[in-house]
Amino acid sequence: QPRIDGIDSPGHNGIDIVVEKDGQYFIVEGKYTGSAGLNPADPKTGLPKQMSDDWISQNDFQRLRDAVGNDLAEKIISAGYKRILAKTSLDGTVLYKELSPTANIIEDWTP
Question: Is 43 helix (H, G, I), strand (E, B) or coil?
């Protein structure tokens, strides 16, 4: 079942959440305080760093296609997207960070 959810929806395998707001798309990875950060690249397997453009686009954007289906994936690929890290603290507060194409934090982000 393709999904496009709210930014505070619980996580899934692969791409956690895809959100559309005012025609702009956001690919969101959710993490909890105390959990590991984004998975690093693995040179042994060739897996790129989690949430990097290389990771999102790997195998013809298969992670994105699995998350939202082929038709919506094509729209998102064509329109472009932002990468967002949503980090939930123990008290439930969520902090959002925009990520670069290499999955490094650029700045705080407000939904």
Answer: coil
Instruction: Confirm whether pTM is higher than 0.85.
Output: no
Give me the residue spans of the domains in the chain: 17-108
Tell me 102's DSSP state.
Answer: T
Q: What percent of the chain has pLDDT over 70?
A: 86
Average pLDDT value over all residues in the chain: 88
Q: Burial letters for 64-96: b for 16+ Cβ neighbours within 10 Å, e otherwise?
A: bbbbbeeebbeebbeeebebbbbbbeeeeeeeb
Nearest to 96 by CA among 16, 14, 13: 16
**CB-based contact 79:68 (threshold 8 Å):** no
Residues 6 or more apart whose Cβ sits within 8 Å of residue 73: 61, 64, 65, 67
Residue from 100, 102, 87, 73 nearest 11 by CA: 87
Q: Residue 98 pLDDT > 90, yes or no? A: yes
CA dihedral 76, 77, 78, 79 (to 10 degrees): 40
